[in-house]
Write a structure and sequence with these properties.
Blueprint (H helix, E strand, L loop, with lengths): L3 H20 L15 H19 L9 E5 L5 H9 L2 E6 L2 H10 L6 E5 L13 E6 L9 H14 E11 L15 H9 L10 H4 L5 H10 L2 E7 L6 E7 L3
Parallel strand pairs: 1-2, 1-4, 2-3, 4-5
Antiparallel strand pairs: 5-7, 6-7
Helix pairs in contact: 1-4, 5-8
Amino acid sequence: MSDPRHMARFWDERAREHAEYFVDNRLDYRRGDYGPDDPEDFWAKGRRDFDVLLETVGAPAIGERDVVLDIGCGVGRLTRVAAERAAHVHALDVSAEMIDRARANLADRDDVTFHVGDGATLRPLEDDSIDVVVSLVVFQHIPDPEITYGYVREILRVLRPGGWAAFQVSDDPVIHAMDHPGPSLARRILARLRGGLPGGQDDPAWRGSAIERTRLEREIAQAGGRVERLEGAGTQYCLVLVRADAA
C-alpha cells in the first residue's frame, strides 16, 4: 500500500505551488492565482460542479438539518456550497496546507469543522455521525486503489443509517498509466524551467489509480450499503450514489 505521508507531502507542495490550479486544473497555470478567472468565477464553477455531481446521480437535496462530510476539501470550494445548505460541514483533507487555505477562505462561517486527515481513514469522525458525504476529483489521485476501497468502507462507517454519499472515482486504468500520452520530456523540462508547467505530474500521487467496479460494489455491500446509481462507468469520471442500509 502507498504511504499516506507521501500523499500529504505531495499535496502540501501543490498547495504552496498553486492551490487553486490543483483544485481545478481548468485554470491557466501560467497566469498564477486564479488564472484568467476572477475569484468569484472560481467559486461559481465549484457550485456548478457540486450541483452537476448531485444531479447526475440523482442525489436527494441536502437538508438544512444535515451534517455533511466533504472528503478532499482542498481550498473549501465544495465545502462552502454544502455549508450554505446544511446544518454543519466537516471538511477533511490530507494536506495541512490545503486545510489552512480552506479555513482562511471560509473564515466567515462558523458551521464548518476542519480536519487534517491521515490519508487512509476518516478519523476522528465517529460512527453513524454523518448524513451526507461528498467527494469530487479526489479518489482518482490516490495511487493505490486499496486506499480508495478503505475510504469507501470508512464512508459507510461514518454514515448514519439511511444516509447517502455522492462521490467520483476513476474506472479507467489507462488514464493512470505512466506511459499515457502527455507532453514530451523535453517540452516538460523547458516549460518547468520557464514556470509554465505544474509540478508533480509524474508523481503517483497525481497519476492516481483506478478502482475495479465489481470490487467497489462488493466493498460497499459488505460495509453495509448499496449502490443506488452509477454513471460514467469505464471512465475517469465515474460518479456513484451510495446509500447506507437502514437500521
